Amino acid sequence: MDLKLIDDSGSLSTLAASDTLFAREYNEALVHQVVTAFQANARSGNRAQKSRGHINKSHKKPWQQKGTGRARAGQANSPLWRGGGRIFPNTPDENFEQKVNRRMYRAGIAAILSQLVREGRLSVVERIAVDAPKTRLFAQKLKAFGLSGTVLVVTDQVDENVFLSSRNLPDVLVLEAKEVDPVSLVRFHNVLLTKAALSQFEEMLA
């Protein structure tokens, strides 16, 4: 598979890459499962609801069982009553984890990368660097590459100037190759890889 290679002047050429990683057929069900599992595994059980045992109300029977014409009732903290406890309350130790096999995860990432290539949204550069930690310099460099909209920049090792220069750009995220996740790949319109990051991807996922 030939990838789009951009030099510092914005000129385009091609770069040969692994077909296993960048020419895989798109599997929508697999990508959905991988993305959903990643988001679920990032959740923490930080919500708590009260059961009927946690409701501070009298345990006395509200009225006698028979003779009132009303439905029988045992306690005011009943889940059937307004202000009562929940039947199956959420607890702080709730576990949202979803298991995804390693081969499935790698195949899902490869399917996303392959689709980005087919849609012309993935590009490769030799390296990306700025002389000083200035947002303006980094924005000009991305503009010179012909990239617009949201951009995910993936490098083998994040340069400090690049990281500091990108922090004030709301539509730009800089990550190392080992930190890339399926949600980031799906979320950004453009993905920019350095050659070293491309080699890391092929080593990790091929």
**Content-based structural category:** alpha/beta
Query: How would you write the strand order of the largest sheet?
Result: 2-1-3-6-4-5
Q: Based on Cα principal axes, name the global outline.
A: elongated
| N→C terminal distance | 13 Å
The parts where pLDDT drops under 50 for at least 5 residues are none
Note the run of SSEs as H and E: EEHHHEHEHEHEH
Q: What's the total number of strands?
A: 6
Helix content: 25-40%
> Could you describe the largest sheet, including whether it forms a barrel?
6 strands, mixed
By DSSP (H or I, 4+ residues per run), the number of helices equals 7
Radius of gyration: 27 Å
Mean pLDDT reading: 91
Strand content: 5-15%
What does this structure look like?
This protein is of the alpha/beta class. Helix content is 33%, strand content 14%. The protein contains seven helices and six strands; from the N terminus they run E-E-H-H-H-E-H-E-H-E-H-E-H. Helix 4 (135-144) crosses helix 5 (160-166). The longest helix is centred in the middle third of the chain and has 17 residues, at 102-118. The model has no long low-confidence stretch (mean pLDDT 91).
Quick summary:
The chain has seven helices and six strands, in the order E-E-H-H-H-E-H-E-H-E-H-E-H.
Secondary structure layout plus pairing:
Elements: E1 2-6, E2 12-16, H1 19-22, H2 28-41, H3 102-118, E3 122-125, H4 135-144, E4 151-155, H5 160-166, E5 172-176, H6 182-187, E6 190-194, H7 195-205
Parallel strand pairs: 1-3, 3-6, 4-5, 4-6
Antiparallel strand pairs: 1-2
Helix pairs in contact: 4-5
